[in-house]
Amino acid sequence: MLQAVSRHDFDRLMMPTYAPASFVPVRAAGSRLWDQQEKEYIDFAGGIAVNALGHAHPQLQQALVQQASQLWHTGNGYTNEPVLRLAQQLVDATFADRVFFCNSGAEANEAALKLARKYGHDRSGGAKSGIVAFTNAFHGRTLFTVSAGGQPAYSKDFAPLPPDISHGTFNDLASAAALINENTCAVIVEPIQGEGGVLPASAAFLQGLRDLCDQHQALLIFDEVQSGVGRTGSLYAYMHYGVTPDVLTTAKALGGGFPIGAMLTRESLAAIMGVGTHGTTYGGNPLAAAVAGKVMELINTPEMLQGVEMRHRWFVDGLEAINQRCNLFSEIRGLGLLLGAVLNEKWAGKAKMFNLAAADAGVMVLIAGANVVRFAPALNISEEEVRQGLERFARACETLVEDDAR
């Protein structure tokens, strides 16, 4: 018999690195979820852009169960069939020739930054080690990636930080150009800053970074951990922009909820990382690879990707209608099904209030900093689920407005 647990046990047993919601989810299907008290929620959070096909997708379940009956894990001293099939899918679908598998977006970015440093060292004997990143970015929680992230709140307590990382202003090409030089080994950028406020890059900014990297023989790394695997309506956001990076990192939606990450790159760069230069015990695990292979099969279709743009309109139209009634947002921005409702001056700094009020109303949303309510639902969410979820979110917004007027 399973031991009874509650939200209170988190505060008693877990390290206080998170402040989770007051309810405990116990089961889910599609874009609906139920807690311990059987309260239903519409899921507009998607596990932070992870559950790209919703919860408990039957074909993902089947892929996992089938693989679990055959081979779970061998370690990186051996390869396996699911990971080779997944690698071929990613190579066939992208600019890349080679793939390195790991377990998370942070690990994928760590691998990309290590590749960049080794690339620079091999070319210059050590002088070419500079990394240019951008303020308000988010690349993970390892010491290297949190340093690249450019958000001091996440890194200041862990100094001394890895050196030779500088930060420009996102979407400001002149700011980047002032930092990129012959000693720069890489520029790392999110095509859409997710945690930084759901802020899409301009096409001119990304093309400018491509040109600057070419000029200074630096690698252009696209962090597509949040924007990848169909989230923008293209398989990867670089396809939407028409700007091809040297290295791409992907995770989150790649496993549809099963932990997996990957770094993709060209043949010549992959050759830099010879045997023993990098590794991971669980990376390329056959269970994760089998699930991710099915995710790729289901998402990388014209029907699924075209459906993202249709759902984008449902959300934007619905949020704009709420805003007409409640006057809360200064802007609705984002691409595909990664959207941010930017709070206006009156409500600035109160995104968490919207997150909590939405949960009370039976809909799960995210925040992206203190000023942006973020939406990252499943790519296959139904029109009825969107309608009901937006109705619940509207009630939450109306409640906040009414409370404020009292």
Structure report:
The protein has 406 residues and is of the alpha/beta class. The protein folds into two domains: 7-58 and 302-405, Aspartate Aminotransferase, domain 1, CATH 3.90.1150.10; 71-299, Aspartate Aminotransferase, domain 2, CATH 3.40.640. 41% of the residues lie in helices and 18% in strands. It has helices spanning 7-13, 46-49, 58-68, 81-93, 105-124, 143-149, 152-155, 173-177, 203-216, 237-241, 267-270, 286-299, 302-326, 351-361, 383-405; strands at residues 25-29, 32-35, 40-43, 98-102, 130-134, 165-168, 184-189, 192-193, 199-200, 219-223, 247-250, 261-265, 329-335, 338-343, 363-364, 366-367, 372-375. The strands form four sheets. It has a seven-stranded mixed sheet, sandwiched between helices. A hairpin with a 2-residue loop joins strand 13 (329-335) and strand 14. Helix 3 runs antiparallel to helix 12 and helix 4 runs parallel beside helix 12 (286-299). The chain is globular. It starts with 6 loop residues before the first helix and ends with a helix. The model has no long low-confidence stretch (mean pLDDT 97).
